[in-house]
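Marked as duplicate of an earlier ticket. Keeping the data here for the record.
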Amino acid sequence: MIDTHCHLDACEVPVADLVARARQANVTRLLAIGMNPDSCRHALAAADEHKEVYVSVGRHPHETQDIEPEALDEIEALASHPKVRAIGEAGLDYKRDYSPPQDQQLAFELQIELALRLHLPLVVHTREADRDTLTMLDRYAGHGLPIVIHCFSLTGWVDECIDRGYYCSFAGNLTYPQADELHKAAQLIPDELLLVETDAPFLSPQDFRGKPNEPAFVRSTAAFLAELRGQSYEQLEQVVQSNAGWIFRW
């Protein structure tokens, strides 16, 4: 299994222990996500140390207050590392006022353009900004940019995401008993657009509620997703391995 989205710098457990436990759980690759230059550098250090770890570098929407275009120069420089396989997480988050919407939109646009320029997929964060997120991505339709909707929540826009060919990555909140709309969405996504993640240390799956999430726990979310879709775990594992391998080129 693959964990396509985790924040190793935010986990209290040492990276070496997280990777070892993931390896024991047969989680073969982790995509460590950068949210700002410091967390990007942390992820790259982990990738240098552990063969299972790859990296996505970017600016989270909460990290975009008063951003200037030059702020992306450092992200672009970090993206030259050979284990960087995506840009992001980038996007829009209107739930909290950590960054003004106009700053988030500028950073999102700059990162879309960076991903296109570097021929890397884009990892997208969207929260209570569904329409604006899709509208901004639509401006770049037809450029062949692979889009991963991280911690999929666009339950009212499932058909639009499928039509656009966006990869839909499901996290531990899929396993929560009250997540009916997510359950329905996960059943609609075609195999070729399906991914799973932890978003560790956040969103621990139901089996581990009350504990910090970690990459090894992605198997719990994957098992729930497979049962929800009427697939065997082994079938889902092959689907995720294939999709992640194509997107992130490992």
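See parent ticket for discussion. The two ends are 14 Å apart (CA to CA).
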